[in-house]
Amino acid sequence: MGKKIVSMLPFVFIALFLGVFTxxxxxxxxxxxxxxxxxxxxxxxxxxxxxxxxxxxxGYFSFPKSVEPFQNSMMTNEIIMNxxxxxxxxxxxxSYPVGNLSERQELMYNCTLPFxxxxxxxxxxxxxxxxxxxxxxxxxxxxxxxxxxxxxxxVSYKVIPKRYRPLLLIFAVFPMLLFQVSxxxxxxxxxxxxxxxxxYMVFLLEKKAIHIRELLLLYxxxxxxxxxxxxxxxxxxLPFLFVSHIQISLGKKILLFGSITVxxxxxxxxxxxxxx
Length: 276
Prior knowledge:
By secondary structure, this protein is mainly alpha-helical. The protein has 2 domains: about 1-185, no CATH class; about 205-275. Helices cover about 55% and strands about 5% of the residues. α1 (about 1-25) packs antiparallel against α6 (about 135-160). The termini are far apart.
């Protein structure tokens, strides 16, 4: 019983610090939160991909008109541009109604923001909509990102071999990491998925032989990770670390890893030319 409590302490510590970084950092005072909050709100309203029409060739997302005044009310730009300016905490006691969800404002030319990276935050916003308060929606988005990271850490801890668990926990307690995963940003999802992929990859590397389905599961994890935050496409090559671990004929290996290469190149090309 005592050992079980001790083993839980790192997760309690991480959860507490996630709470600190979630609630004690003022709204929009983390990198790119204004943009990602609008994207998450658009996803919460059902916009998976950019809207294209004859007036918007490059596409747009739309979000409730109440979001922009809320951002201005939080004095976002004034604080960012002025180090001596401090956030007035009284602003958190104000009323910021969501208003009519059908009254939208356009977020132009940001079609490279994928929906995968905003799923937890969008779910948090969806849960908050009955409250009808943009401030509640904002913090629920942050909470959802923090919960997603914490759940990913627990799964990673169970998957990774025991001798590597301290390394995983050291990674998970970095203050800058906790600061970012508790933000309204696709970094929350990307960093969580990176941790899961790393843990599963170490698990596979410890095995003398792996099944094709295990390799494909790793590949799917890498794919979702890259879709969450495009730009890390080079990591599509990670499955090639396991060429010698797959106990199949040479012909089947060529077919398997050739298929992985073709699919990776095709997906990378599609991500560049048809951003989600």
